[in-house]
Design brief:
The protein is built from 4 helices and 2 strands, in the order ααααββ. By secondary structure, the chain is mainly alpha-helical. The chain is globular.
Length: 94
């Protein structure tokens, strides 16, 4: 197995694990969170390009996630390109 395939498998396993922790997450939403945590993509357009999906679909899923408190934070919006930069807040230290 080559390194690229194993990276993709690892990413998909982390997406599945995120969905297992929160059944409300769609696969794209879980992917957005995992990509931010791993530093793979921290904006909507980069995520859409990496996964080969429509940017408009990513924006919709990102918007839904941003409405949920504490899950994801929008840090910047580029009105010209529609790119949305986001971050995942660190876990609460209780």
């Amino acid at each position: 197995m080559n390194e690229e395939a194993s990276d993709a498998d690892r990413f998909l396993a982390l997406v599945a694990a995120a969905q297992g922790r929160d059944i409300r997450l769609t696969s794209i939403q879980a992917g957005l969170l995992v990509a931010a945590e791993l530093g793979i993509a921290r904006d909507s357009r980069a995520f859409a390009r990496l996964l080969g999906i429509a940017h408009s679909l990513v924006l919709r899923e990102l918007s839904d996630l941003a409405e949920r408190e504490g899950v994801l934070q929008i840090v910047k919006r580029d009105l010209r390109t529609m790119r949305v930069h986001y971050t995942v807040p660190p876990p609460d230290e209780a």
